[in-house]
Design a protein that fits this description.
Blueprint lengths: L10 H14 L4 E4 L6 E2 L7 E2 L7 H5 L17 H4 L3 E4 L3 E6 L10 E6 L7 E6 L13 E8 L7 E9 L5 E10 L6 E7 L11 E7 H4 L3 E10 L12 H8 L5 E4 L29 E2 L5 E2 L5 H10 L3 E6 L16 H15 L6 H8 L8 E6 L7 H18 L4 E4 L14 E8 L1 H6 L13 E9 L21 H16 L4 E6 L3 E3 L14 E3 L4 E3 L1 H11 L4 E2 L11 E8 L6 E8 L5 E6 L7 E8 L17 E6 L3 E6 L3 E8 L3
Parallel strand pairs: 1-29, 3-14, 14-17, 17-18, 18-19, 19-20, 20-21, 21-22, 23-24
Antiparallel strand pairs: 2-26, 4-7, 5-6, 6-13, 7-12, 8-11, 8-13, 9-10, 9-12, 15-16, 24-25, 26-27, 27-28, 28-33, 29-32, 30-31, 30-33
Helix pairs in contact: 7-8, 11-12
The chain binds 2-acetamido-2-deoxy-beta-D-glucopyranose (NAG) (9 copies).
Family: Belongs to the glycosyl hydrolase 51 family.
EC number: 3.2.1.55
Catalytic activity: Hydrolysis of terminal non-reducing alpha-L-arabinofuranoside residues in alpha-L-arabinosides
Length: 661
């Protein structure tokens, strides 16, 4: 039997003979492992793809609790939308206005609050958060707002900043002073220490004043904010439970900031790094690509800091001259956009003494470059292949020359159209059926070995119906990953690991979605991790990603190839950085019938091996209503240089063996 990876042309012949062999050994699959590594495994192999979709960023990973906190990008002629998430308390008149004296040039809008004549109670505004606010008495909340009186008054008193239940029970409150003589903007900060932990998530943030003292007067507010404690206590940071879930996957890279959300529907609404850095009041926000306004509170600095916090490399995209609505920048007009991309890369990694953008990074407290080695030129440019030829040519030539040590990824279909200069790296995306993934776990075995490397930048089994992949759940589209979809992905991942001499990184997509009342806030399903304002729900696919990521090796050991039309898949790696070495075998079973697989090792191993196992029924899913349906288990098994492993139906296993050297 041939252990070597099949070459480009050898593949069909080899697969035919393997299929024949597997028919012979149907009941008892034997896998012979070669002790000589075929290649080293890149440390970047398993990571995460991120963009703001389904409130993964605003309302998700970003810990800000208030929705529509600064009235960014809202149209004041549509008050219902402009006031999204805001409510009147005791008849206050609320209007989002275009301020005559805006709080900043980036934030033209403000909230005008008029207290009715004859008022005698606490009057003001409430914000419902991102479909609820979790209130916990063990946490301290940082609140802030800007205010001014458009007409000066003699008022000098307090506003109460509070967290309260939907029925008005105060969970925590603090008083701040307001002055009627304050006709220019002033920021007020306060902390709220709740005395009660709410048992529901339907809580509101409120700012109220004494209606009797202020009857008939108007106060303008801008740029509110409310933060719970954040991951690693970073100001303007990440939500702890979501961050910890992502961190527990031990990802080695983070793709940012998109995805389609990089592109904008129009050129004007594209993601622009320089609109996302510096004080929050200087960030205009943007109309995102997934149906809601992005605050850009998680800006480029926050993204890169997050990468550093999780010890991840950033795979950072630059806008490449194409907006999703269909506009490509003309060949002769690309200059300013290329310059903006150069500035963006300098902000991430440039020398502060040579670049203003890098000096800006240093002024924000980070003189050292961030960990960025790969730059993606655009996203899914197979949507505009005709213009990508000149866009790729101009962007990659200019950027490679400005940053000789960085690598650049092309995003159109691989080798089609032919791009000049020839891309050294490609980002490949695939959304398919579970069986497609299993069958195509060999796809990279057939790729030519010629120095070109690949990033499987987005993949997920999204439907069981090959004829209607992007349809509705009735057509087979999945709402949540299932054991069937997750094992299909796992089979594919064994192929990525086998081909990690040319595949340097891979990430499931999308990463996160806000789940509220039957996924009304999801722009896309399924997702790796779902959450609501108080909980996080890792899917079966999350546990597959985690199992691969936690069980890496630094070199790949060739073994008998799986049957190309089979239902069991495996990959064998070795961790040589520990003595004795660890040998890690991943085994995937994509059907409901258990399978025995005999492994023959060419070296001695200790008798006890640990197994991390994920298994469940075909349609089992972890959902917000049944979050713990499937969870990883650990146990030990007895092994030897020849041993048989019984892979349960619909399972993914990582067997860790201890070598003798
Ligand atoms: C193991 O792999 C090495 C390197 O590819 C190859 O030279 C050797 O023949 C293989 N051993 C067996 C038993 O096939
Ligand atoms: C609290 O939020 C709910 C929605 O969750 C909303 O209906 C209600 O009006 C809000 N109340 C206040 C005072 O903001
Ligand atoms: C806020 O001030 C009001 C009026 O003086 C007072 O009744 C209330 O107890 C104060 N609340 C807090 C949290 O200090
Ligand atoms: C309050 O009453 C005054 C005097 O009648 C009137 O000018 C003003 O418009 C009223 N304001 C509100 C908010 O109703
Ligand atoms: C909240 O405020 C405290 C005190 O100013 C500060 O140490 C902490 O970093 C802040 N937290 C966030 C998330 O901004
Ligand atoms: C960001 O840069 C673009 C051009 O590179 C410029 O048009 C825009 O005004 C800048 N935005 C800010 C907030 O400076
Ligand atoms: C590598 O192989 C691919 C596929 O055959 C081809 O399109 C590409 O041009 C090759 N790259 C180099 C650098 O030869
Ligand atoms: C090898 O194992 C050590 C000890 O568990 C771990 O720190 C290291 O990350 C592993 N190497 C790889 C490539 O996973
Ligand atoms: C796997 O092996 C076990 C014990 O060695 C045996 O009981 C079982 O029937 C075998 N299963 C299959 C599917 O061959």
């Amino acid at each position: 039997m041939d252990f070597s990876r099949p070459g480009f042309l050898m593949l069909p012949i080899l697969l035919t003979s393997l299929a024949f062999l597997c028919v012979l050994v149907n009941a008892q699959t034997t896998v012979v492992v070669n002790g000589t590594a075929s290649h080293s495994i890149p440390s970047t192999l398993w990571g995460q793809m991120f963009e703001d979709i389904s409130h993964s960023g605003d309302g998700g990973l970003y810990a800000e609790l208030l929705q529509n906190r600064a009235f960014q990008m809202v149209d004041v002629s549509d008050q219902a939308t402009a006031l999204s998430a805001w409510h009147s308390v005791n008849e206050a008149q609320l209007t989002v206005i275009e301020e005559t004296i805006p709080v900043s040039s980036a934030l033209p809008n403000a909230l005008s609050v008029t207290i009715p004549n004859g008022s005698s109670s606490q009057v003001g505004v409430g914000n419902e958060g991102y479909f609820g606010i979790k209130v916990d008495s063990s946490e301290t909340y940082n609140a802030s707002l800007f205010y001014r009186f458009p007409t000066a008054s003699s008022f000098n008193g307090i506003a109460t900043v509070a967290l309260q239940t939907s029925t008005g029970q105060i969970l925590g409150a603090t008083n701040v002073t307001l002055s009627g003589s304050q006709t220019s903007w002033l920021q007020v900060v306060a902390t709220i220490q709740p005395t009660i932990t709410a048992n529901a998530l339907t809580n509101n943030f409120t700012v109220t004043v004494d209606g009797a003292a202020l009857a008939g007067q108007t106060i303008n507010f801008a740029m509110f904010s409310l933060f719970p404690p954040t991951f690693k206590n970073r100001p303007n940071g990440m939500r702890v439970d979501i961050a910890e879930t992502l961190s527990a996957m031990v990802p080695s890279f983070f793709r940012l900031p998109g995805g389609n959300n990089l592109e904008g529907q129009t050129v004007a609404t594209r993601w622009q790094w320089n609109n996302t850095v510096g004080p929050l009041v200087d960030r205009p926000g943007r109309v995102g690509d997934w149906g809601y306004v992005n605050t850009d509170g998680v800006g480029l600095f926050e993204y890169l800091s997050w990468c550093e916090d999780l010890n991840m490399q950033a795979i950072m995209a630059v806008w490449s001259g194409f907006a999703l609505g269909g506009t490509s920048i003309a060949e002769d007009d690309l200059g300013p956009y290329i310059q903006q991309a150069i500035d963006q890369i300098n902000f991430a990694v440039g020398d502060p003494s040579e670049s203003d953008a890098a000096a800006l990074r240093a002024s924000l407290g980070h003189p050292d470059p961030f960990p960025v080695a790969h730059i993606e030129i655009g996203n899914e440019d197979f949507f505009a292949p005709d213009t990508y030829t000149y866009r790729w040519n101009q962007f990659s030539t200019a950027l490679q020359s400005a940053f000789p040590s960085l690598s650049f990824l092309a995003t159109s279909d691989t080798f089609n159209p032919v791009l000049t200069p020839n891309p050294a790296e490609w980002d490949i995306h695939v959304y398919q059926t579970p069986s497609w993934f299993a069958e195509n776990s060999f796809i990279y075995d057939g790729f030519e070995r010629n120095g070109t490397h690949y990033f499987e930048g987005e993949y997920a089994a999204i439907s069981t119906n090959p004829n209607d992949l992007f349809g509705t759940p009735a057509d087979g589209r999945l709402t949540f990953p299932t054991m069937q979809s997750s094992t299909g992905e796992a089979a594919f991942m064994t192929g990525l690991e086998r081909n990690s001499d040319i595949v340097f990184a891979a990430s499931y997509a999308p990463l996160l979605n806000l789940w509220v009342q039957h996924v009304v806030n999801s722009q896309w399903t399924p997702n790796l991790v779902s959450f609501d304002s108080g909980n996080v729900y890792p899917s079966t696919s999350y546990y597959v990603q985690q199992l691969f990521s936690l069980n890496r090796g630094d070199e790949y050991l060739p073994s008998t190839l799986p049957d190309v039309s089979g239902t069991t898949f495996w990959s064998v790696v070795r961790n040589t950085s520990v003595t004795p070495n660890k040998i890690i075998i991943k085994v995937v079973n994509t059907i409901g019938i258990a399978s025995n697989i005999t492994f023959q090792l060419p070296f001695a191993v200790e008798n006890t091996a640990t197994v991390q196992l994920l298994t469940g029924a075909e349609t089992d899913s972890n959902t917000p209503t049944a979050p713990n349906t499937v969870a990883p288990q650990s146990n030990t098994i007895t092994v030897g240089d020849t041993f048989t492993y019984n892979a349960p139906g619909f399972s993914v296993s990582a067997l860790t063996l201890t070598g003798s050297t």
